Amino acid sequence: MAVLSTIQCVFSVVLVLFASPLPCLNVRAYQRPVMVQQTGKVLPKPQMMTVSAEAYTLAMSSFKFTYGSSSEMCDIVDQAFRRYYDLIFDVDGPKKAPKVPESMAELTVLQVMVKEPCKGAYPSLESSENYTLTVTAPMGMLVADSAWGVLRGLETFSQLIYRTDDGTMIINKTTVDDFPRFAHRGILLDTSRHFIPLKYIKQNLDAMAYNKFNVFHWHIVDDQSFPYQSVVFPDLSAKGAFNPYTHLYTQEDVKDVIEYSRLRGIRVVPEFDTPGHTASWGAGLPGFLTPCYDGSTPNGKYYAANPMLNTTYDYMTKLLQEVKDVFPDKHVHLGGDEVNFNCWKSNPDITKFMEKMGFGTDYSKLEQYYIKNILDISTSIGRDYIVWQEVLDNGVQDKSTVGEVWFENPTIQAVLERLTAKGYRVLLAAGWYLNHDVYNPGTDWADFYKLDPQVFNGTQAQKDLVIGGEACMWGEYVDGTNLIARLWPRASAVAERLWSNKDVKNMADATVRMDEQRCRMVRRGLNAEPLHPGFCQFEYD
Amino acid sequence: MRPYLVLLVALSLQAAVAEWSYQTSWYEKARQDKVARGTVWPQPRSIDTTSVRYYLDPRNFRLEADSSSAAVSDPECKAVVDHALSRYGELLFWIPEEDRAGVDGDETLDKLVLTITRGCTRYPSLESDESYSILVNSDGATLLAQTAWGALRGLETFSQLIYGENGKHVINGTSISDSPRFPHRGIMIDTARHYLPLPFILRHLDAMAYNKMNVLHWHIVDDQAFPFQSTTFPDLSGKGAYTRKHVYTPDDVSQVLEFARLRGIRVIPEFDTPGHMMSWGQGHPEILTRCYPTSFQPDIYYLGPANPARETTYTFMRKLFEEIRELFADEYFHVGGDEVRFQCWNSNEEVQEFMVQQGFPNSTVGFADLQGYYINRILEILHQVPERTRGIVWQEIFDNFEISGDLTGLNLDTIIHVWEWNDTRYQGEPFREEMAKVTAAGYRTILSSCYYLNYISYGRDWPQYYECDPHDFQGTEAQKQLVIGGEACLWAEWVDSTNFIPRMWPRASAVAERLWSPQDVADSEAASPRMEEQRCRMVRRGIPAQPQGPSYCEYEWNILSQLPNYRPVITSSGPRVTEGLFHNLFLGVLVLAVVKCLA
């Protein structure tokens, strides 16, 4: 409770400081409207970029993307050409081509060079996303090792273009040499607490591409519902979805999401969280959950996977085998968080099993036993895995495990230090729980932005074990009605932290990029929420 | 995995999740417990429901106006009623045709007959009678109201009584006698901190009607921008709006007014003065007070409140109010009066001289006198414009008269809007004392202090609004009678069209029930299943109201193209619109425009 009241106290102070209902005598409370300038700033800020004062114009009728003569070609790049052409020219463009000063040179071609074969490619943790972009009239050049690098470069290119008041499209002479700081830059969506219609999952994937995120962590099932339509266990969704006909991701839907993501260079990492957070599995998979007892009689309630039964592991083997077939990513997230031992403790069969296994009364050993079996299953079917931090704190020994840090224990930095000291690779999510919306989102993105996953006590080798991070949008209070507005542009702050150089931390500069990026997303049709009073040239309507 | 910071809010729903355990058909059960069916929001004054079910056949069911009553014979009634009947004709039934089951062999309800016993006014007002009664039994269904405004409330209730079951639309035998607890049930929107495109305002008005709210308080201009396009002073928006596109033309305003009128909603504009006028200064710096630098005034404040020393200021305001009065229909205008920076008046020699001339001392009392003088001149102007108008003011005006020691100085027909919750907000609730003081002095009052929806905290926060009662202050019965209602406020520093509707709804529904239903309907836990139904009902009708905890709606927001979010169209013969929000709104506005032209 002491911690609680401290948090509440801090929270109150923040409210008092920033939450004055009307601009009042206090000068700080007057929120000056911001005139957002579209000047072609790029978010996340590239590693190296030189912009010259020399400017070129672009015209819808003459501009084209082409492949370089020795470039690899594939659908990923083909479709990206089409998307970015639309994003650059179609949105609210002037009906008539504005007059362009004759002195201004025109950029007519962006030539793209892909070095590695990209047909049918699927992104991975090891994928190169490097690119170099040279904008000079009449022909610009975009060179990348992979199609993924091309996607990142095209996004940058599209952001460099801006319009003058009369609608002339301008791009400055620019060179960019860019690559991400972290390989894993993710967004977690939770489709169990609320069902999120495909439309919004795709809108979010678009937004991710605009911000160079590359992992969609799909927390697809949880206690509240099981919307994933399993082939081997169709009853899981038939009996565990909110509604088995409408609140459901069919195999087709999942394929659709994976392909949509792939074309944007985004990996889809599904999470099947066990042994806790599985209430919705019970109806469709009888015998999977542990019966809870009052004294010596079952009380009709069930909780968590039953760790003592071989059938439990058979079920998980079959399910994970299916997951492997459906989701092409090399990683699967296996959860492992927040296991409550009360039900296991109440069950006399579990008690006997504990004795037999020599666990005494240490139920964390039982949890470890379960997790170890699940991780072994995953390894045996050929999938690497990510787990929540408790699993690593509890001492699972496999060093190939990726741990996702989600709570302060006692601080974020202490967890990072501890887990990397043990040699695990880690992802940071703590501090980036964007589902917690606040009165003034202009204040909280700054906190997201300032959090650096590599700032903790440790050797360089330890720092190198941080492979990235994830912004999380837990779904208790979020569904299609408010998902996009709550997540964006706040997640853009995380995007820049994970992509840009660690020295990019000037808040004033970041604010300008955030403002432009927010209005850019609105212009592209996403209802990204405002960060302060003011307006965008093109409002969401 | 749940967010760890959830501890922070310690919500019951959340707490339940931590120990979530599985039971047979758990989601069916969870839904039954959490979501009611066929319940009414806000809760009627008196409602009796029987277990007898009547089935409605969407192909045959009719909404009828009793031709022998004012509903047909009074043209003012008829206009509103006809429009409402076609709207509700669309709202009553939502189960997609392909999912519907026949009702042959069931006891059916074939029609609702609407009778208006008194007559109608063109616009709703503070005095409008919104009472109605509904009877659904084996003889049929009847709706009885004194006025069209009551009929609108009754139609909304009737539409909410219908629920879906196995592909059938069902209503139980019901007897309702209903009327609002408070006559002023408002929502304040702020179109100055961010511009709200018209379709979002119209959609919001629909949502207000679904919750029986009856006042749109339109805080249309403020320091940041002046989007109202004045024909008398075009430079106000010409230079004070964000851009030429970020404006409300007189035609836009008329559209809002008509859309609101047809839903029984008053539109009260606020032109806040003498403070909060920085944007006016872009086009007309001469009406504002020039501030001279002092240590506490950064230079962005070089223009402060209206200049009370110049007669031209009052001439300007008179012309503006004359124009606005012609455009807006309501008898009340909100003229603000909040948060005036006396430091600026203090720094200006012209104002100082004026104060000496008027005999106002150079002290807090003197500045209170000066603001009192200014606001009285403004209220006097309101009284003198062709259609006599009365003022609503923020509480500071009252406070300043109190400081001046002259509470009789303010006209008693002024309504005091209590909003402050400042400074001691976490130790006490001074707004309750303010309510007591204001009513003790004989003024009517509106409460907003505890209905600031712009403040958000993580999770399910509507109970805090729900549990704040406007009568919860020390005072006599006569004082309580002076409380005419309340307003939910959504200040827009961090709100625009991207998040306006989901942030407003269903949180504003909590305020709606507080202001409509009897005082003893106050248990938020008991109200929760009805609230869930109301939120899903709004989502189904095309209002993206945000969720209040893990759950689902039968018809989610844009779940599938085959399951559209229905949008009530203006005529029953009009197209059933099945596309997204914006398309629908566009069509809605278009149809409205056409209907207007034809009329």
Automatic annotation (TrEMBL), chain A:
Residue span, Glycoside hydrolase family 20 catalytic domain: 182-501
CDD domains found in the cross-reference section: GH20_HexA_HexB-like (cd06562)
Main enzyme class: hydrolase
Domain Beta-hexosaminidase eukaryotic type N-terminal intervals: 42-160
Extent of the signal sequence: 1-21
Cross-referenced Gene3D superfamilies: Chitobiase/beta-hexosaminidase domain 2-like, Glycosidases
Family named by the database record: Belongs to the glycosyl hydrolase 20 family.
Protein name: Beta-hexosaminidase
Organism of this sequence: Branchiostoma floridae
Organism classification: Eukaryota, Metazoa, Chordata, Cephalochordata, Leptocardii
Gene label: LOC118409832
TrEMBL record, chain B:
InterPro entries, A to Z: Beta_hexosaminidase_sua/sub (IPR025705), GH (IPR017853), Glyco_hydro_20_cat (IPR015883), Hex-like_dom2 (IPR029018), HEX_eukaryotic_N (IPR029019)
Glycoside hydrolase family 20 catalytic domain residues: 182-518
PANTHER family: BETA-HEXOSAMINIDASE, BETA-HEXOSAMINIDASE A
Biological process (GO), any one: N-glycan processing
Disulfide cysteine pairs (residue numbers): 77-120, 291-344, 536-553
Protein name, per record: Beta-hexosaminidase
GO cellular component: lysosome; membrane
Broad enzyme group: hydrolase
A single MF term (Gene Ontology): beta-N-acetylhexosaminidase activity
Keywords assigned by UniProt, alphabetized: Disulfide bond, Glycoprotein, Glycosidase, Hydrolase, Signal
Top-level taxon in the UniProt lineage: Eukaryota
Signal peptide start-end: 1-18
Ranges for domain Beta-hexosaminidase eukaryotic type N-terminal: 40-161
Family matches, as Gene3D superfamilies: Chitobiase/beta-hexosaminidase domain 2-like, Glycosidases
Family (UniProt): Belongs to the glycosyl hydrolase 20 family.
Listed EC numbers: 3.2.1.52
Catalytic activity, as annotated: N-acetyl-beta-D-6-sulfogalactosaminyl-(1->4)-alpha-L-iduronyl-(1->3)-N-acetyl-D-6-sulfogalactosamine + H2O = alpha-L-iduronyl-(1->3)-N-acetyl-D-6-sulfogalactosamine + N-acetyl-D-6-sulfogalactosamine; a ganglioside GM2 (d18:1(4E)) + H2O = a ganglioside GM3 (d18:1(4E)) + N-acetyl-beta-D-galactosamine; beta-D-GalNAc-(1->4)-alpha-L-IdoA-(1->3)-beta-D-GalNAc-4-sulfate-(1->4)-alpha-L-IdoA-(1->3)-D-GalNAc-4-sulfate + H2O = alpha-L-IdoA-(1->3)-beta-D-GalNAc-4-sulfate-(1->4)-alpha-L-IdoA-(1->3)-D-GalNAc-4-sulfate + N-acetyl-D-galactosamine; N-acetyl-beta-D-galactosaminyl-(1->4)-beta-D-3-sulfogalactosyl-(1->4)-beta-D-glucosyl-(1<->1')-ceramide + H2O = a beta-D-3-sulfogalactosyl-(1->4)-beta-D-glucosyl-(1<->1')-ceramide + N-acetyl-beta-D-galactosamine
Residues forming the catalytic site: 339
